[in-house]
Amino acid sequence: MNEEREQDSTADAADDAMLATYKIAVERALPRVPVKNGVVDIDSIWVETSIPFDILESILRRDDLTIPPNVERIHLKSRASQGEPNAAPRGRKRREVRN
User: Fold this and answer.
1) The whole model's pTM is what?
2) Of 23, 56, 79, 90, which residue is 20 to 30 A from 64 by alpha carbon distance?
3) Which domain holds residue 67?
């Protein structure tokens, strides 16, 4: 029982360290992303950092994130299409060859 608590606390410490590293990466990337009327899109930050989207969203929701003075807010809704899970591919239709 005591070993499980130690493993959980070790895992929590590792997660906190990982989030701190990602937070620093986001803070360094924010001055390089395009800003339109004081707004930055989450998609632009994702392209710049390649951090997994759900982790990036949780980092951007934090209160201790330092943003540049020209950024007034960060738009957290993605504009990239997610696609449908079982959608048919939308590639080019090929004609059948007739003999």
Assistant:
1) 0.68
2) 79
3) 10-75
> Domain tally for the chain?
1
Is residue 51 a contact partner of residue 22, using CB atoms and an 8 Å limit?
yes
The full 3-state SS of the chain, as one line of letters, equals: CHHHHHHHHHHHHHHHHHHHHHHHHHHHHHHHCCCECCEEEHHHHHHHHCCCHHHHHHHHCCCCCCCCCCCCEEECCCCCCCCCCCCCCCCCCCCCCCC
How many Å apart are CA 11 and CA 46, to the nearest integer?
25
- The verdict on residue 66 lying in a domain is yes
Q: Which of 16, 32, 95 is nearest to 67 (CA)?
A: 32
What share of the chain in percent tops pLDDT 70? 80
- Residue 93: the pLDDT is 73
Residue 30 lies in a domain: yes
